[in-house]
Amino acid sequence: MSTNTEKNTLILTFNKDLYPKEAMIKAAYRFIVDCYVYLNQTAADYVIEITAKETALPENLANEFRNELLAQTVRLQVYKQTHVIRELLMARAMASTIISEPPTGESAATEADADLNEITKDWFEKYGQK
Questions:
Q1: Could you tell me the sign of the dihedral formed by the alpha carbons of 16, 17, 22, 23, in that order?
Q2: What local confidence, expressed as pLDDT, does residue 57 receive?
Q3: Domain boundaries in the chain?
Q4: 105: region left, alpha or beta (phi > 0 left; psi from -120 to 50 alpha)
Q5: CATH number for domain 2-95, candidates 3.30.70, 2.30.29, 3.40.1130, 1.10.510
Q6: How confident is the model at residue 101 (pLDDT cuts 50, 70, 90)?
Q7: Threshold 0.90, pTM exceeds
């Protein structure tokens, strides 16, 4: 890690074998409100250059970035381990909302009109509270 105080820039390097690229990008994204973030890579490392937009860089910015990178890495690992279960739960929830056979003919129109009339009725008219 190196810091250029003249340009108010922090340069961090992280081993590619330890951190996924997606986690690196998500961690960097967290800091774009207050800093300019430039991502690059070498054969073995990710290189992150962080420059403050207006004020000086916070003292603990490097540690905050490291923690955010670790958090994003864990989130990605949890997602990879549990995405199948979440997809099954969503599919099950969506399948339970499917109507097997819609009403047909005149009865369908009458039911739809009755539902629409009920929905559009003023609550006070419906319950006599005027």
A1: negative
A2: 87
A3: 2-95
A4: left
A5: 3.30.70
A6: low
A7: no
